[in-house]
Amino acid sequence: MLLELLTRKKPFSYLSSEGDGLVGHFTTLFAEGNLSQILDSQVVDGGGKEVEEVAKLALACLKLTTENRPTMRDVELTLEGLQASKRNILDNVLVEDDGTSMSGPTNTGHPNIKESSRQYTMEEEFLLSSRYPR
User: What distances in angstroms separate CA 84 from CA 89, 105, 114, one per listed residue?
Assistant: First the structure.
């Protein structure tokens, strides 16, 4: 899924000029350091340094054996870490001359920054999932 988000291409219909599928072509370009050839331009323009980290994560998710792939929880934590890192960088940039943050103790002062609300208990998760028939 990360690969599709980064490239905005569908793996079942993608074929490179060399005859590689999306996964093969992405892997080759990553190894060559030419990801800009396959990544969506909006992703590259808006992503900054995080794009390379997400690309590394996507590559790890493409490993053939389960033991070599990160768990979905690992993926979630990595992405949240990247988001938190980006928030910290923005907080540092938004500091005024007197040393106080323009956004205050939380990031609500900046319109493009949203706080994560992914912290809930296992009980809440169970109750949420019980609403859907199995």
Answer: 9, 14, 10
The secondary structure of residue 87, as a DSSP letter, is H
CA 54 remoteness from chain centre: 5
Burial of 60 (0-12, 13-18, 19+ CB in 10 A): middle
Angstrom distance (rounded) from CA 120 to CA 127: 11
Closest among 73, 77, 60, 71 to 23, alpha carbons compared: 60
pTM of the model: 0.62
CB 28 within 8 A of CB 20: yes
> Cβ(116)–Cβ(104) under 8 Å?
no
Helix H or strand E segment including 64: none
Separation between Cα atoms, residue 42 and residue 8, nearest integer Å? 10
Q: Position of tokens 């706080």? A: 115
Side chain identity at residue 85, one-letter code? S
Highest mean pLDDT among 47-51, 87-91, 92-96, 101-105: 47-51
Greatest Cα pair distance, the chain, in angstroms, is: 58
